[in-house]
């Protein structure tokens, strides 16, 4: 039997919206409102508002590009069209080196929520995070259709939880909590935006899934439009009540949402939110693992990885080898996190700075490729804003630079080796 060599086209705009919301709206909304408020005070609202506005031109550019040129390589494919093969390879490597940190971090946030009510040890929390990753890998292995229907259900739960949390907290909001508005000045607002990039990563994942849409020209813009509207509204609303109730001053920012609900409904409701928080964190893990495997598949198809990695499952038509080959890396990162007691904020910063560089490259490439003026202008705005936020990344800004230099050296060494073997 001849193996299927194309990804199955089965995603509708509703499934696409759920996958996109799931990629963007997850662990970040549970921890970052409190984290950013601790950094910038009430002025963290400006960070959320500015990042929300920043996401609009990026969504327009990604929607225009992915619907016009559906390719599972996503950003790496856009960079190839704009700047050539080497830049595409570097972009792919930057994304591949970000995911092994981003996925365990997201899973750990969910596990911390569950552990907060069950009094788990650090070992139990890390084991629960590993279980979350294993479930996502298994469901993605069995096909994008099952995967997307699962995401629709989980995203519906997320929207309910966040709406309930905001509504419950409104009576506890105090105007005095917003003064002084800038207790630490304007620089922390930019610093918080660097951290917030973790909450706004994910729009590009629709590009990695674009080959699997039934009607990409119609459905991708619809999916992105619904996703950007809902996520920005909920992000700002949750940040507003987190600051207005001063819940961010009450303890651990990882479990701030539990405290927020418990203010009005008591510990039992807080326990329910903690349980559902574990489910919330599953969403971005699920979608990013799906997009990550498609990126590996696309990079293999372009000749950057061994052909074996790009094989599709005969029955499920999924890049199952890509899912399985990189799975051990997630668990190794979790092991190091447990043994070395890594700081969660540091782990979040690593994928953030990588994706800032990816967005700079990707949006500049989109601006060079798209024929329509709106797409070009949106892409250039996104590229410039990504660069502006990157300035605030501090020492973490060196991570993507080192990764890029190593990728260039590896590529040149491979070319030299091939040239030598031909002599």
UniProtKB/TrEMBL annotation:
The chain crosses the membrane at residues 12-33, 45-66, 87-111, 117-137, 149-170, 185-203, 224-249, 269-292, 321-340, 346-367, 379-408. One of its GO terms (cellular component) is plasma membrane. Keywords: Cell membrane, Membrane, Transmembrane, Transmembrane helix. It is found in: Cell membrane. It comes from the Bacteria. One of its GO terms (molecular function) is transmembrane transporter activity. The keyword Cell membrane applies. This is Amino acid/polyamine/organocation transporter, APC superfamily.
């Amino acid at each position: 039997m001849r193996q299927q060599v194309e990804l199955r086209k089965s995603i509708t705009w509703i499934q696409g919206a759920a996958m996109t919301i799931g990629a963007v709206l997850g662990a970040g909304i549970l921890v970052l409102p409190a984290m950013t408020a601790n950094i910038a005070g009430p002025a963290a609202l400006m960070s959320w508002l500015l990042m929300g506005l920043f996401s609009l031109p990026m969504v327009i550019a990604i929607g225009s590009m992915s619907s016009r040129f559906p390719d599972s390589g996503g950003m790496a494919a856009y960079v190839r069209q704009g700047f050539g093969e080497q830049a595409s390879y570097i972009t792919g490597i930057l994304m591949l080196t970000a995911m092994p940190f981003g996925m365990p971090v997201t899973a750990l946030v969910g596990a911390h929520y569950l552990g907060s009510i069950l009094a788990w040890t650090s070992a139990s929390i890390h084991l629960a995070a590993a279980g979350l990753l294993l479930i996502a890998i298994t469901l993605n292995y069995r096909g994008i259709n099952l995967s997307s229907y699962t995401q629709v259900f989980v995203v519906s739960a997320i929207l309910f939880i966040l709406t309930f949390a905001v509504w419950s907290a409104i009576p506890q909001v105090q105007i005095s909590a917003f003064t002084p508005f800038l207790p630490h000045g304007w620089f922390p607002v930019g610093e918080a935006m660097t951290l917030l990039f973790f909450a706004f990563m994910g729009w590009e994942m629709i590009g990695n899934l674009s080959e699997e849409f039934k009607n990409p020209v119609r459905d991708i813009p619809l999916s992105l439009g619904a996703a950007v509207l809902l996520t920005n509204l909920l992000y700002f609303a949750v940040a507003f009540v987190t600051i207005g109730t001063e819940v961010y001053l009450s303890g651990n920012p990882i479990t701030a949402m539990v405290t927020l609900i418990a203010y009005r409904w008591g510990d039992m409701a807080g326990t329910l939110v903690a349980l559902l928080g574990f489910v919330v964190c599953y969403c971005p893990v699920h979608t990013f693992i799906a997009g990550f495997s498609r990126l590996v598949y696309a990079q293999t198809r372009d000749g950057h990885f061994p052909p074996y990695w790009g094989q599709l499952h005969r029955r499920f038509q999924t890049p199952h080898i890509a899912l399985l080959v990189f799975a051990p890396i997630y668990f190794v990162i979790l092991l190091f996190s447990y043994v070395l007691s890594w700081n969660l904020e540091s782990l979040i910063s690593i994928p953030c700075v990588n994706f800032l560089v990816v967005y700079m490259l990707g949006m500049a490439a989109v601006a060079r490729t798209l024929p329509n003026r709106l797409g070009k202008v949106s892409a250039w705005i996104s590229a410039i804003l990504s660069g502006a936020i990157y300035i605030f990344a501090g020492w973490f800004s060196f991570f993507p630079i080192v990764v890029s230099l190593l990728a260039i050296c590896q590529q040149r060494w491979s070319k030299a080796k091939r040239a030598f073997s031909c002599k």
